[in-house]
Amino acid sequence: MKLEINWKQKSLENLEKKDEGNPSADYTSLVNNVLKLRKIPLNQFSVENLRLMIGQNEGLRYLIVLSLDILKDDLFADGDFYPGDLLQNVLKAPTTFWIEHKELWEAVDSLIKDRVEEISEHGISSQIFYDITI
Questions:
Q1: Is residue 1 part of a domain?
Q2: Is residue 104 part of a domain?
Q3: CB within 8 A of 2, min separation 6: which ones?
Q4: Residue 61 placed within a domain
Q5: Cα 126 to Cα 61, 62, 118, distances in angstroms
Q6: What is the total count of domains within the chain?
Q7: Cα-Cα-Cα-Cα dihedral sign, residues 70, 73, 76, 80
Q8: What is the DSSP string of 23-68?
Q9: Could you tell me if 59 and 53 are in contact, meaning their C-beta atoms sit under 8 angstroms apart?
Q10: What is the pLDDT of residues 64-97, one digit of tens each?
Q11: What's the half-sphere exposure (Cβ side, CA atoms, 13 Å) at 21?
Q12: Which helix H or strand E contains 126, and what residues bound it?
């Protein structure tokens, strides 16, 4: 997957060329958070920001790449919920995403294949990820 040279300095809105609008009092806090995060440069995302946006299937082609950089250093990096919550959301990305981005599936597989038992001990299931036929 080829990305622009300075893609981490751009927001999802800029990268996807898609403005989803602005936060509003009429929206839930989750929707407002997603709308705010779509406007922030990716290099300013926290682990929690990544976890939240991946859980909402937002900007996966960019955010999974960012997450891999973090997960390489700490497979059980956590946002606001529990150790490994970022990994859990990455593993739950839709099948269609993994089929379209086989190289990212392979990168995740190489991170977790020798640690499946440890991942399971953290209460994280990798089964849905491995049920995908690439």
A1: no
A2: yes
A3: none
A4: yes
A5: 20, 21, 11
A6: 1
A7: negative
A8: --TTS-HHHHHHHHHTTS-GGG--HHHHHHHHHTT-SHHHHHHHHH
A9: yes
A10: 999 999 999 999 999 999 999 999 999 999 999 9
A11: 7
A12: none
